[in-house]
Write a structure and sequence with these properties.
The chain is built from eleven helices and no strands. It is mainly α. The longest helix has 51 residues. The two termini are 28 Å apart.
């Protein structure tokens, strides 16, 4: 904007000078110098008035950042068919890993019931052996099995290992698929960004510092995109699947206690949202302080130079 206004002002000045140089009276009387000086002062005042202040610059940057916000699925527009296949595989594996968590809780519940049954059988055996005799047999039919509690625990231990290895493999598949797909998409984004930067005019580079282009765009911004469409998606999907599966299991196993927890859960959600809002405000203040520190440093350097 400033460069265009300066070019237009220079053109007007050349036109006015050509008009007055054709008359020798103006040249002899020194009118051209006075006219040129007055014209330059008017142009400088106009350009200075049109330049935005620091607060307006910050506001314009905030408006541009809010206007250029992408929709959730627009960020995946660089994905090809292989990336889509890997994302679907990672999504399925993350959901399956979250669904295995209630099964682990079910095994844990069975083991705890078996430990309680061992103590219960020992107590019943000591109280009834004197009256019935030593030929009595304890049966654990309330556990759903004719095995003793000790044998029942030993039979469940192998399922712990099986479910643990299965969850590990599913999470490994989910995270690797999403990370590989994110790396491929960020690589295409980096190439497209470099091509667009190389096609810009010289004035575009004058308005931006080298640190903003090298570290701001090519490193920090793309790293945030890679983290956002990479392992964070797999982690969020696995946690959501785990929450839904555990909630369904708790309602099936004990719906009264589950309703008590659900009645308190809105308070937990509100507290979590307050924490998120506070962290976002802190990030905004940190960004503002960094921007104003740069302005202050530049001004102090100019004063020191003078």
């Amino acid at each position: 904007m400033y460069r265009q206004q300066r070019v237009q002002a220079d053109n007007k000045r050349d036109i006015s000078l050509n008009k007055y140089t054709s008359n020798p009276a103006f040249v002899n009387n020194g009118y051209i110098d006075e006219h040129t000086r007055a014209h330059d002062e008017n142009v400088s005042n106009d350009i200075t008035d049109d330049q935005p202040t620091t607060g307006e610059t910050v506001q314009n940057k905030a408006n541009e950042s809010s206007a250029l916000r992408l929709k959730p699925f627009q960020i995946f527009r660089f994905a090809d068919k292989w990336d889509i296949i890997m994302m679907i595989m990672g999504l399925s594996a993350a959901i399956a890993s979250g669904a295995f968590y209630p099964l682990i809780l079910l095994l844990y519940q069975t083991v705890i019931d078996s430990f309680i049954a061992i103590d219960r059988n020992q107590t019943e055996f000591e109280t009834t052996s004197a009256n019935i005799g030593l030929n009595c047999r304890n049966r654990t039919s309330y556990l759903g099995s004719d095995l003793s509690p000790y044998d029942n625990i030993m039979s469940i231990l192998k399922w712990y290992a099986i479910f643990g290895v299965t969850c590990f493999v599913l999470l490994w598949i989910a995270f690797n698929c999403w990370i590989i797909s994110a790396e491929r998409q960020v690589r295409k984004m980096r190439y497209a960004l470099i091509n667009n930067i190389m096609r810009q005019d010289i004035g575009w580079f004058d308005c931006r510092s080298s640190s903003d282009l090298s570290s701001g765009l090519l490193v920090d911004a793309l790293d945030n995109v890679r983290d956002g469409i990479g392992y964070q998606v797999a982690d969020c999907t696995a946690l959501l699947a785990r929450i839904v599966a555990c909630l369904a299991y708790s309602i099936w196993n004990g719906w009264k206690l589950s309703l008590v927890f659900l009645s308190v859960s809105p308070l937990i959600i509100i507290a979590f949202n307050i924490t998120v809002v506070v962290s976002i405000l802190f990030d905004c203040l940190t960004t503002l302080m960094a921007f104003f520190s740069i302005v202050y440093k530049e001004n102090t350097e100019f004063i020191w130079t003078i």
